[in-house]
Write a structure and sequence with these properties.
Blueprint lengths: L12 H28 L6 E4 L3 H8 L6 E4 L4 H19 L3 E7 L9 E3 L11 H12 L22 E8 L6 E15 L7 E10 L11 E10 L21 E6 L16 E3 L4 E5 L34 E5 L5
Parallel strand pairs: 9-10
Antiparallel strand pairs: 1-2, 3-5, 4-6, 5-6, 6-7, 7-8, 9-11, 11-12
């Protein structure tokens, strides 16, 4: 009679010791790598009292303070807020009927929930310029609030440092366009002897309060801000870092069919690349970047990339957004 050999279940003590030894080596390596990563990053971001002034803080955030405490870049707390705002922005644009980017030189003072529009009388708003002309004519918006601007190097003027993005949705109000949300992007340079030297950058979202029962002006619903120091380690004058900035904030690509309309200067035509629906490239300031130093741009002015090539690698917040996705 053959007796089967007894096969014990589980692991032997030698096998368990081997597994524990290997686990200790792996965990030890992970701890060392993590510690190195943590030590290489700033443990605490410096805070800066930015003298925005009471008028700006009221306009930006709905509060009245002469100074605002803002984290110095790189600011990883602001980065998490920027990520949340990115998701909200994508949600807003996906459900939009139209998106219009208008550049500004000062802060935005107009945040409407409704815009008068009569489809039987008013023009098709198929460009940002037509949208701007419409709100000036129908909503009495000052012509100086938003720039009549078509991409860099086309009008011989400086590139605007601020932008308002209007996100329109389906309207249940006859004779009106519905503004679902407004995003304001503002960059303010501080160079005074008694001021913190650098650039205050912010992105803010405005929308109707959830408790609102009737359309009204949009209110501040969240955003992020960060303070970028000069790109030079120890600037002795404002001119040494005067080229620091973050522009353009957007580029408009018009319909290719508009090439039939020959315009001056001819550099306008280089942006007429959309086969059907016009769209934007949009950039937001990145809180994880260390400064807003200029990046060299060597492309020809006949190439549309020349207008924004310097933005490559300057921000992880870059969007491609249709101008009127529902049409």
């Amino acid at each position: 009679m053959n007796r089967r050999a007894h096969q014990p279940g589980g692991y032997t003590s030698v096998e368990l010791l081997l597994v524990l030894a290997l686990s200790a080596v792996i965990l030890g390596a992970a701890v060392i790598s993590y510690g190195t990563l943590v030590r290489s990053q700033p443990s605490v971001s410096s805070m800066v009292a930015v003298p925005l002034g009471g008028i700006r803080t009221l306009n930006f955030y709905g509060t009245v303070n002469n100074t605002v405490d803002v984290g110095m870049a790189p600011q990883y707390g602001a980065l998490s807020l920027a990520e949340e705002l990115r998701e909200q922005f994508l949600t807003d644009t996906l459900s939009a009927t139209a998106v219009y980017c208008l550049p500004r030189d000062s802060f935005n003072t107009w945040k409407p929930a409704l815009i008068a529009y009569d489809s039987t009388k008013d023009e098709e708003l198929d460009t940002p310029q037509k949208f701007r002309a419409h709100i000036i004519a129908r909503a009495s918006v000052p012509a100086s609030l938003y720039r009549d601007y078509r991409n860099p190097l086309n009008d011989g003027t400086s590139v605007p440092q601020n932008t308002t993005i209007f996100i329109l949705g389906y309207s249940k109000y006859s004779g009106y366009l519905k503004v679902n949300a407004i995003y304001d992007i503002d960059l303010i340079r501080f160079t005074g002897a008694k001021e913190p030297n650098g650039i205050h950058a912010s992105v803010k979202r405005y929308a109707e309060a959830t408790s609102s029962t009737t359309p009204d002006n949009l209110t501040y619903m969240g955003g992020y801000d960060v303070f970028f120091p000069p790109s030079l380690p120890s600037p002795t004058s404002a001119s040494q870092w005067s080229k620091d900035g973050f522009a353009p904030l957007f580029i408009t690509f018009e319909r290719a069919s508009r090439l039939a309309l020959r315009e001056t200067p001819t550099t306008i035509d280089r942006f007429k690349r959309a086969s059907e629906r016009p769209f934007y490239f949009i950039w937001w300031p990145d809180p994880a970047a260390r400064h807003r130093g200029q990046i060299a741009n060597t492309l020809s002015t006949t190439d549309p990339r020349q207008a924004y090539n310097q933005m490559a690698g300057r921000s992880s917040f870059m969007f491609t957004v249709p101008m009127f996705p529902a049409l």
